[in-house]
């Protein structure tokens, strides 16, 4: 089977499709991944062929400013800020989809794929599949969970007109073959009533790195708290500078990190705060707080008592896979919805404001909350009962040969 896999967005988006890319290659299939250029390194060593075809991510977000002013089908600007639903639709189905389609088409015509496997916010792959008359399916997705299908299809029809494809009336036109999810029944994070997914348990993320010695040697005399705002922090900082829209409502990443360090310094715990390489000059951290650029997150989570997270979809799933309650500080995109849904399910609590005091109070509350811990362990066991990823591979094979 020949598979074209498409992805754009942040590094987290690439990690959403990475397990399936590896599994398809392991099953003997020819996989060509077409990512935005900054995502290509994620797929190094997978055995997949990687082609730089997608537009640069930050450059492609510049169209948001224009769409907020001019409007588009389903949205008439009124002078005020567009709501998050509109921003996400514009982010996913703006003019950059046409650019990506035009770059992907010659690659797809040469490959002649049997299937397109796409990340949930990447829609050029959907149009490529429609052009070639082949099936396409979406992997587990954070942004895809919160995209309004009716509004999205209206703008996607503009892209279809751009490239000479027939418009579609079906609001679910981007899911003709359903989708894949990696969360158990009853614990979906889809905001809209999406078709029933094929569920599977992704393998634990692979890492060649052990825990740094300073973390591996921490005493077990106090709870261990990991605070990580995700791989997208530097990207978000760039989006704020470019006025890209989606990141404008979030707190400055430096302010968030400072509040985390100051708040956790007052809690009786060992705390690890990852910065993603963002400089934190002049921060006065307590002796219990370890500030690092990054850690092998899935590995460290296995020994944590609490995870302070932006609630990106990958981090959320890693937290549930390891049975760790979440203290949530969502930033943008699907993260606020993820945090609300996780709180609704009893899997953690949101920090009400970005301040050291709120961080400390919420942390102490969750470390003492046995009910949240029980809820997370319940979901963890249900998740571990899902079929392996090889079952999802067989489903993709059946789509390609139907």
UniProtKB/TrEMBL annotation:
Coiled coil: none annotated. Residues 260-388 form the Erythromycin biosynthesis protein CIII-like C-terminal domain. This is N-glycosyltransferase. It comes from the Bacteria. Gene3D superfamilies: Glycogen Phosphorylase B (3.40.50.2000). InterPro entries: EryCIII-like_C, Glycosyltransferase_28, UDP_glucos_trans. Keywords: Glycosyltransferase, Transferase. Signal peptide: none annotated. One of its GO terms (molecular function) is UDP-glycosyltransferase activity. The keyword Glycosyltransferase applies. The keyword Transit peptide does not apply. GO terms for biological process: antibiotic biosynthetic process. Its EC number is 2.4.1.-. It holds the Pfam family EryCIII-like_C. The lineage of its organism: Bacteria, Bacillati, Actinomycetota, Actinomycetes, Pseudonocardiales.
């Amino acid at each position: 089977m020949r598979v074209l896999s498409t992805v754009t967005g942040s590094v987290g988006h690439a990690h959403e499709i990475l397990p399936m890319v590896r599994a398809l290659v392991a099953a003997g299939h020819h996989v060509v991944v077409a990512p935005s250029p900054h995502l290509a390194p994620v797929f190094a060593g997978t055995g997949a062929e990687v082609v730089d075809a997608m537009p640069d991510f930050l450059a492609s977000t510049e169209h948001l400013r224009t769409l907020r002013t001019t409007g588009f089908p389903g949205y008439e600007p009124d002078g005020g800020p567009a709501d998050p639903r509109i921003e996400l639709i514009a982010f996913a189905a703006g003019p950059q989809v046409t650019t990506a389609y035009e770059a992907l088409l010659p690659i797809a015509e040469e490959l002649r794929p049997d299937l397109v496997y796409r990340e949930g916010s990447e829609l050029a792959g959907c149009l490529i599949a429609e052009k070639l008359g082949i099936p396409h399916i979406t992997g587990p997705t954070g942004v895809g969970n919160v995209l309004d299908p009716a509004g999205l299809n209206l703008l996607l029809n503009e892209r279809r007109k751009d490239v000479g494809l027939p418009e579609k009336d079906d609001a679910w036109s981007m899911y003709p073959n359903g989708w894949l999810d990696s969360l158990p029944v009853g614990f979906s994070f889809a905001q809209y009533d999406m078709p029933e997914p094929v569920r599977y348990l992704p393998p634990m993320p692979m890492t060649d790195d052990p825990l740094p010695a300073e973390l591996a040697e921490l005493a077990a005399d106090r709870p261990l708290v990991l605070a990580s705002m995700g791989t997208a922090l530097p990207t978000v900082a760039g989006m704020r500078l470019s006025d890209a829209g989606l990141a404008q409502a979030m707190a400055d990443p430096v302010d968030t990190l400072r509040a985390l360090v100051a708040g956790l310094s007052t809690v009786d715990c060992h705390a690890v705060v990852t910065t993603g390489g963002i400089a934190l000059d002049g921060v006065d951290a307590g002796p219990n707080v370890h500030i690092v650029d990054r850690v092998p997150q899935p590995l460290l989570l296995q020994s944590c008592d609490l995870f302070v997270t932006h609630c990106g979809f990958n981090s959320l799933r890693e937290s549930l896979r390891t049975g760790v309650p979440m203290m949530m500080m969502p930033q943008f995109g699907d993260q606020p919805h993820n945090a609300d849904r996780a709180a609704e399910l009893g899997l953690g609590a949101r920090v009400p404001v970005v301040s050291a005091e709120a961080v400390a109070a919420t942390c102490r509350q969750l470390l003492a909350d046995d009910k949240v811990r029980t809820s997370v362990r319940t979901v963890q066991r249900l998740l571990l009962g899902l079929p392996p990823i090889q079952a999802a591979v067989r489903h993709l094979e059946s789509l390609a040969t139907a």
